[in-house]
Design a protein that fits this description.
The protein has an eight-stranded antiparallel beta sheet with strand order 10-11-12-13-20-17-16-15, with no helix packed on it. Strands 2-3-4-5-8 form a five-stranded antiparallel beta sheet, with no helix packed on it. The relative contact order is 0.13. By secondary structure, it is mostly beta strands. 8% of the residues lie in helices and 50% in strands.
Amino acid sequence: MLLICCAAYSRAQNASPYVINATNKPYLLRSFLMFEGKKRTHVISVGTPEKINYAYDLKQGALLEVWRGDFMDVKEMWQDRGEPQLAKPLGTVLPLSAAPALAVLADKDAAWPDSIAFDDLQNQGYVLDKSKMPTFLYTANGAEVSDKITVLNGGTALSRTISISNGKQPLYCRIAAAATIDAHKNNTYTVGNKTYTVTVAEGTKAFIRKTQSGKELLVQLANASDSLTYSLTW
């Protein structure tokens, strides 16, 4: 009987997650992360005191996913030797895309690339603002890029500002891709079956285009120095 109880206790201990959360400042975690069935090896995840969290692929400039609630289960990173090095987002995760945020297109109808070659994106680290939220810096597609993601209004949404400088040619930014994207008033778009809402900054000329798998919401960054700001609500 004692052996059975001890075995049950051991299984319970092994099943318990190692939960980490942000407290009075954002928590930045480097790890591997499973996304779309693939282990992503250059991921940084950011948890916030407002419990609005996201995961970002540093080698694609891609906002992979967002979620609310608890931040991460790091058991597979910290238990024993932590060989898998996998962090597991907690709560209900909203997957976005592993494709790069920026691309050079031959024209506005050219297919969006699935990825950018590993050596074609050079990471320059990140800088923290006063609230300790990161802005990611990299060079790709002939431009210097900054990608700032912040929490809006106490956790009601995430805001993202992508800025380029010293660009050699016009770039496109893909904000969203889904089976359906519908435009509404005030630069607002619903993505999927009202899965989430995108609000693009006033004056931004976003456009929806059809693809083989659905629709995409794009903006052209036509100048050598240009920027785009939009928010995600879900």
